[in-house]
Design brief:
The complex is a heterotrimer of chains A (293), B (423) and C (368).
Chain A lengths: L1 H31 L6 H17 L4 H28 L3 H23 L14 E4 L2 E4 H23 L1 H11 L1 H6 L4 H27 L7 H14 L4 H21 L10 H13 L14
Antiparallel strand pairs in A: 1-2
Chain B lengths: L2 H22 L28 E8 L6 H20 L3 E2 L5 E10 L4 H11 L5 E3 L4 H6 L1 H7 L3 E4 L15 E3 L4 H13 L5 E8 L2 H13 L6 E9 L7 H8 L5 E5 L3 H14 L4 E4 L6 H8 L7 E5 L13 H13 L10 H18 L5 H8 L30 E5 L4 E3 L6
Parallel strand pairs in B: 1-3, 1-4, 4-5, 5-6, 7-8, 7-9, 9-10, 10-11
Antiparallel strand pairs in B: 2-3, 11-12, 12-13
Chain C lengths: L1 H8 L1 H21 L2 H26 L7 H17 L4 H23 L4 H21 L1 H4 L5 E2 L13 H25 L1 H11 L1 H6 L4 H27 L1 E2 L6 H14 L4 H21 L4 H15 L7 H8 L10 H13 L7 H4 L17
Antiparallel strand pairs in C: 1-2
Helix pairs in contact in C: 2-8, 3-8, 3-11, 3-12, 3-13, 4-5, 4-11, 5-11, 8-9, 8-11, 9-11, 12-13, 13-14
The chains are: A mainly alpha (293), B alpha/beta (423), C mainly alpha (368).
Chain lengths: 293, 423, 368
């Protein structure tokens, strides 16, 4: 039983890493209607900026805040000058543009900071806590807590605030939104800026464990996309729950179903998604999409 | 269909073919017969070598997840020959002194691109060397044999490259994975005490080779029992699940054939969190004291062992030694690599350069055939930055250039040689 | 420029153009240097792969991020058959049929569930494919991969290996392109286009979206298998790295950059896939990633419709802005609303559950 609980807790911890990225993807999607493949890359860039500031002697918390501010403007500028041109065209082209952006940002980080693994200072002390027969590190616990807080904030943003409503309106129907007096351009920029901030937080949370390299978030990207689809792109709570589910079920399947083992355990999220989609095509928590003919 | 679209299509076709033709066509087909550059007895020079210079080619990952070690495979050899060129060049056995140029291309760890790079380089370089990766090197191994282009001293522990019959134009540099695993297995078996072993290995030829060697090392020793064996993927974000399972076995030795730095660090941390404190074995390329053991808190374990044949550039005494300082300065000046490297491949590539210099000194003809012949005659050569007890020996069929490794034990600051198991 | 358009539309000009291309294809390999032949052969391999992707994504509008999986299966089937000593024609058939069967099975299950499921299943294919290839090492040679040398030029031809391989690529690839071109210009192509445009309309017209999606996916997998066979002809080695998910993303990018939904675009996409890494290597091998990203962004910035839209760009230059009527956010939004209201242009964004736009009645198209 101890193993089981440990695996569940470990799964939640790994799942939180996926969830961090997934939340940023959700935000961009809700605000601009795009899937941003470069979200992980932008998160890594933000983490590098924080690391670099810290290297210049800035205390880590201030360095992170500085990186967050820089990320906001970076995200807004990227939207305005790069993505804007593709938002209203073929969505495939927009996705490929984000792919190109990811390649570019990864290459940029490698060029500036090389491929050496950089150690990122941890915000949380390196201790463990006993929890029902299993151990969890304070760092993992802290990550989970921060993810939950962000998730609740995002949920509140979208459902409860004028800004959230404006962001969603612009994404769904820009013309009507413009007629309603919403500044479409600024709204789009804010959406990307906030997503970049989210990404920065994600990057900074996971960098201590994954060590800082240009490709740090690449492994998590596919899982984050899977979590988005499973949970429904319109629901922050959905993607976080989905990400946790993926992390936990993966671990359990690997250990308790020997046939799957640790090498094929990545099949588990996809099987899960398939099963869920048969029952609920919009994902666990998504809103049903209605298309008028 | 409208006229415009038809016109557009035809124009695009012609434009496309025109672009391809312009890019692809050079002068008319030269003497580039793919089937052999003949050399026979007369010393008609092979491509890539003149009276003043010789060019070596490298195809290695310079971007992507393996770019860290990959960049090192170019940096080390560039630093070595950069210093030599600044001194006037390398002396060859035929009496000429030549500068050594390096042409490196990025293959992004894609075998298809590695072969493309080889196709591109083979007619302008004398020999290919130092590339990283098993699938990437395997992709053009047969082509190199058919074209009679040396694929010498490459960075892979795959045994096929050192088998002279299977690979007459190839030779590996680093010890085959089996050797490293076996060295530790023999040490453990020789301890005379009872041990239980848990194994975690990377799910590819790297991990499989280590485990195979380890099992060969403990064969017949009935004081060693393997109680659990698991794998992980090189792309995994974490191995916590595997560690939880392995910790449940209660083994007192943990054989961890892992080549991913962040996973090793998190493994060190996680096993401590789980309260499992075995003795560890780590492979040579992920055992750096400053980059891995200290962040991981390795001092908590009764013993951390590794195998190595080269000094670690991250060790505190390294920069103070004469060879070490020259190495670091060379990296900075010639290879555009200002930070002390976190990967051992920089040192290994530097040693490849030194070994090649030994071969060049023996060559009497500027031909690839002569190069391969002399390549297999180096024996007892201690390359710079090598550990005591390890030498370069290319004369043994089936073994790469370096086949002897030293088992070392972490002493809280760095590594010290471990002759036997002492706990 | 009407006179030019008329010139190109004259039958004899078109036949001369085709004749010229055929002559180039026969004579070219004999005079070009070895590296050029090898490069063009590789372009052919990946042009076929992109063509397959276009059938299912460009023409039928279904997201497939798993095309490289079928290429890999085709390559492995070829390697296995060759190493087992089977007749080469049988091996080719195997390389086509095995991926097609797998594609059929996948599509049968996923197509009923809508774009989301197809997208996710196709992402799963290469991601699960890699560890699977490692596990089935009896068939695949495990993580070390397998070599299969079978495309050396036979003695009676007197050709060099690279020439022979290029002719094979031209022959097999050319036939594949021709067959696919006929397919997409015929009734199947029209059915695909309707399914892409609006599934409800398609169903109401008696065109079963389910059937045609399955068909498109199976054809795409088959073409992927052909590409895998050609991959083995040219590279003669395959390993789990061949099926890597990153290559699927590269194929997607190549398809879009070449020009989605276009035969010529597939050719250009294949050229992009092969030539971009080589060009960035020539510029500076140490910063290939940064250069590739930058070049991709610049190309898409200038040509959002892909390289195949280059002539269109020249033509429009004379008539005003490329983006058509209206710039700026509102104007762009208005035009976009018109474009977005071409309903159901199912793409990665839509398939992954992006908020559906409300569809007003189709407005008159702004440009023909």
């Amino acid at each position: 039983m101890g193993t089981f609980i440990q695996l569940v807790i470990d799964g939640l911890s790994t799942g939180s890493i996926y969830a961090a990225l997934a939340l940023a993807i959700v935000l961009v999607n809700q605000a601009t209607g795009l899937i941003n493949f470069a979200q992980g890359g932008m998160a890594v860039l933000s983490a590098y900026i924080a690391w670099a500031l810290n290297g210049f002697g800035v205390p880590i918390v201030l360095a992170i805040l500085g990186a967050i501010v820089v990320s906001f403007f970076l995200g807004a500028l990227i939207e305005r000058y790069l993505i804007r041109r593709f938002e209203r065209g073929d969505p495939d082209t927009a996705v490929v543009v984000t792919i190109g952006l990811l390649t570019f940002i990864t290459g940029l980080c490698a060029w500036i900071w090389t491929y050496n693994n950089r150690l990122f200072p941890s915000l949380f002390p390196l201790q463990t806590i006993q929890l029902g027969g299993a151990v969890i590190s304070v760092r993992s616990l802290g990550t989970i807590v921060v993810i939950v807080v962000i998730m609740l904030l995002l949920q509140a943003l979208f459902l409860g605030t004028k800004l959230g409503l404006a962001l969603r309106a612009v994404a769904i129907n820009p013309a009507s939104a413009a007629f309603s007096g919403i500044n479409v351009g600024r709204s789009l920029m804010v959406g990307w800026g906030l997503a970049a901030v989210l990404g920065a937080v994600a990057g900074v949370l996971v960098a201590p464990q994954l060590t800082l390299t240009p490709g740090m978030m690449d492994g998590a990207l596919v899982y984050a996309l899977a979590a988005c689809i499973l949970g429904g792109l319109s629901s922050p709570i959905g993607v976080v729950v989905a990400a946790w589910l993926i992390g936990v079920l993966e671990n359990l399947a690997a250990v308790y179903i020997p046939f799957i083992g640790h090498d094929l355990k990545i099949a588990v999220p996809f099987i899960l998604i398939f099963v869920v989609l048969i029952v609920r095509p919009q994902g666990l928590f998504g809103r049903k999409a209605v298309v008028r003919v | 269909m409208s006229t415009n679209r038809r016109r557009m299509r035809v124009a695009s076709v012609v434009a496309g073919i025109g672009i391809v033709a312009v890019l692809a066509a050079g002068c008319a087909r030269g003497g580039g017969s793919p089937n052999s550059t003949e050399d026979g007895g007369a010393a008609e020079a092979s491509p890539g070598i003149t009276d003043d210079s010789i060019t070596l080619g490298i195809t290695t990952p310079l971007s992507g997840p393996t770019a860290g070690p990959g960049t090192c495979t170019v940096a080390g050899i560039t630093a070595y020959f950069g210093a030599k060129n600044a001194d006037g060049g390398v002396e060859f056995g035929d009496g000429k002194t030549r500068t050594v140029e390096i042409e490196a291309l990025d293959d992004e760890y894609d075998p298809q691109k590695a072969k493309a790079n080889y196709d591109q380089l083979k007619s302008s370089v004398f020999a290919m060397t130092a590339g990283l990766g098993t699938p990437t090197n395997r992709a053009w191994r047969e082509a190199a044999i058919a074209d009679e282009v040396p694929q010498a001293l490459i960075m892979t522990g795959d045994p096929i490259f050192s088998d002279a019959e299977e690979s007459p134009w190839q030779l590996g540099f680093v010890p085959i994975y089996q050797n490293e695993g076996q060295a530790f297995g023999e040490l453990l078996a020789g301890s005379g005490e009872e041990h239980t072993v848990a194994i975690l290995s990377q799910n590819d030829d790297y991990g499989e080779g280590y485990v195979e060697g380890f099992k060969a090392g403990i064969e017949g020793a009935d004081n060693i029992e393997i109680v659990k064996e698991l794998t992980y993927e090189a792309t995994d974000t974490s191995v916590d699940a595997q560690l939880t399972e392995l910790a449940g076995s209660g083994a007192d030795v943990f054989f961890n054939a892992m080549s991913i730095t962040p996973l090793v660090i998190s493994s060190l941390q996680k096993t401590q969190e789980l309260g499992w404190l075995p003795s560890w074995f780590l492979p040579s390329n992920t055992s750096s004291p400053t980059a891995i053991l200290e962040p991981g808190g390795a001092a908590a374990f009764p013993g951390v062992y590794t195998v190595a044949f080269a000094q670690s550039a991250a060790a505190p005494t390294f920069a103070e030694s004469e060879d070490g300082a020259a190495f670091l300065a060379g990296l900075k000046e010639y290879a555009n690599y200002p930070d002390p490297p976190a990967f051992p491949h920089c040192v290994w590539s530097y040693q490849v350069g030194a070994t090649l210099e030994q071969v060049f000194a023996k060559m009497t003809e500027p031909t690839r055939a002569d190069f391969m012949e002399q390549l297999r005659t180096i024996s007892g050569y201690t390359a710079p930055l090598m550990l005591e007890g390890s030498t370069v020996d290319t004369t043994v069929d089936g073994q790469p250039a370096v086949s002897t490794v030293q088992v070392q034990k972490y002493n809280g600051k760095g590594y010290a040689p471990a002759e036997s198991w002492d706990q | 420029m009407p006179s030019t358009a008329e010139f190109w539309s004259r039958p004899w000009v078109r036949w001369a153009g085709i004749g010229l291309i055929v002559v180039l294809m026969i004579v070219g390999p004999l005079i070009l240097p070895e590296f050029a032949n090898q490069t063009i052969a590789r372009i052919g391999v990946f042009a076929v792969a992109v063509l397959g992707l276009n059938v299912v994504m460009g023409y039928t509008g279904q997201v497939s991020l798993g095309q490289i999986f079928f290429v890999g299966v085709g390559a492995y089937a070829t390697a296995y058959g060759v190493n087992a000593g089977w007749n080469i024609v049988l091996v080719f058939v195997l390389a086509c049929v095995v991926p097609a069967v797998l594609g059929l099975l996948v599509a049968l299950a996923a197509a009923r569930l809508g774009g989301l499921a197809i997208a996710m299943v196709t992402i799963a294919l290469p991601i699960v494919g890699v560890p699977l290839a490692k596990r089935l090492s009896d068939f695949t040679g495990g993580s070390q991969g397998t070599s299969a040398r079978f495309s050396d030029a036979p003695e009676w031809t007197g050709l060099y290996d690279d020439q022979w391989q290029l002719y094979l690529v031209f022959l097999i690839g050319g036939i594949t392109f021709l067959l696919t071109r006929n397919l997409v210009r015929g009734k199947y192509g029209r059915a695909f286009a309707i399914v892409k445009g609006n599934e409800a309309v398609a169903a109401s017209m008696g065109v079963s979206p389910y059937r045609y999606k399955v068909l498109a996916f199976t054809i795409a997998s088959l073409i992927g298998g052909v590409s895998g066979f050609l991959y083995m002809v040219v590279i003669q080695y395959t390993s789990p790295e061949t099926l890597h998910f990153g290559h699927s993303i590269e194929l997607l990018a190549s398809m879009v950059i070449g020009g989605a939904g276009s035969i010529i675009g597939s050719l250009l996409g294949g050229a992009w896939y092969v030539l971009l890494p080589q060009i960035t290597n020539l510029i500076d091998p140490n910063i290939t990633a940064m250069l590739q990203g930058a070049i991709l962004l610049v190309v898409l910035f200038i040509l959002p419709g892909g390289l195949v839209s280059l002539p269109r760009l020249w033509r429009r230059r004379g008539r005003g802005s490329v983006a058509g009527p209206g710039g700026g956010p509102v104007g762009g939004a208005m035009q976009a609303d018109a474009a977005a209201s071409v309903p159901g242009s199912s793409t990665v964004g839509d398939a992954l559950g992006a908020p559906q736009t409300q569809s007003p009645p189709p407005p008159p198209t702004t440009q023909s």
